[in-house]
Amino acid sequence: MALSLLIAAVLAFGPMLLTLDPVAALARFSRVSANLALGAFCALLGIAVVSLAALAILRRLGVAAPERSAALFAIAPSLLLQPGLNGLSDAFWIAACLMALAAALDRRHMHMLLWWGAALAFDPHAMLVAPLLLALLINRHVPVHRWAVAPLISLATLAVLFAIGWPMPGWESVFAGRADGLPPLSANAPNIWAIVQALPLGALSLSGLAVTATIGVSAAYIARFSAQHLNGRSLIAAALLAALIMGGLLPYQQADCFLLADLLALILALARHDRASWRVAILLQAGSALGLIGDRLDLPGFAMFGAVALLSATLSLARAVLQPAANDNPLMARPPART
């Protein structure tokens, strides 16, 4: 963020130093300074919001000195590379998703649906954890009629955001480029399609394969985890796996599709504090940062390198999460849901 602000200041103020009109120079200086100040404020506010939401999960996981651990989120590359109001909008949906997971840890499913519905209104990327939430609702026998809370809250929040003119880059990107046909399978997103679309496949369309793979793997994920009792660290690990699978398989994703996964990986590493978890977190941070930098500099090759790191992290996490525990018994009695 600091480097971005410095470059913007040089580009804005450099020509101004050559002008012969001091009044115009002062007016431009004031205008650009105000824009930079607003961008910096929004970026810092977004980091603070996400850090507080992460702190709520760290406390529930029993992490030692959670306040000090939450400070690490202030230097997460994925957050620092999302400046201005767009970054603040991303921070709100990510924070709402984290609060939904905190409510899931407390088995407060109405709160979980409320938070997730609000997150979905800010950005459709909240759908990345939808398979986990659906698996939890099935596993914990939450009445089906209560599931409608999430879409109702989402529609109400969307109406408010639209009325006040709040920027919604996530929803805008869903419809971007549709007038000229479908966008590329990966719009600098560091997922498997960044590699596939670089292959010499000619005019072969893979959008149907991408959608089918996403639906099939999501269904398998829901079937697997709806029969498994999740709590504490295992719940966060399953949420991270859902975010990685969905972000890795969904077509037409932007470079910021792994923002939530980056932060969940940090939370899991801080909670488990083992080498494997930190390796996954570092791979995720590196891969996501490569995708974001490539998007800013218009260098698609960065997304392919980032995809390699993210695929490695996904496979490593999947082996650990999907390995059944010694006492794993999906038929054991499940505690009643708290609503």
Blueprint of the fold:
Layout: H1 2-13, H2 22-60, H3 66-70, H4 77-80, H5 84-105, H6 109-122, H7 130-139, H8 149-164, H9 169-175, H10 192-196, H11 207-225, H12 232-249, H13 259-272, H14 275-297, H15 300-322
Organism: Sphingomonas echinoides
Keywords: Membrane, Transmembrane, Transmembrane helix
Transmembrane segments: 35-58, 70-101, 113-137, 149-168, 192-223, 235-252, 303-322
Structure write-up:
With 339 residues, this protein is mainly α. It has one domain. The protein is 68% helix and 0% strand. The chain contains 15 helices and no strands. Helix 5 runs antiparallel to helix 6 (109-122), helix 6 (109-122) runs parallel beside helix 8 and helix 12 (232-249) runs antiparallel to helix 13 (259-272). The longest helix is centred in the first third of the chain and has 39 residues, at 22-60. The protein is globular and about 50 Å long. The protein starts with a helix and ends in a 17-residue tail after the last helix.
> Looking at the structure, what is the overall shape?
globular
Number of helices: 15
Kindly name the structural category: mainly alpha
Domain unit count: 1
Task: Sketch the topology as an H/E string, one letter per element.
Answer: HHHHHHHHHHHHHHH
Regions with little confidence, pLDDT below 50 for 5+ residues: 1-20, 326-335
Helix content: 55-70%
Rg, alpha carbons: 21 Å
**Major sheet, described briefly?**
none
Distance between the termini: 41 Å
**Strand-residue fraction?**
under 5%
Average predicted confidence as pLDDT: 79
Q: How many DSSP E strands?
A: 0
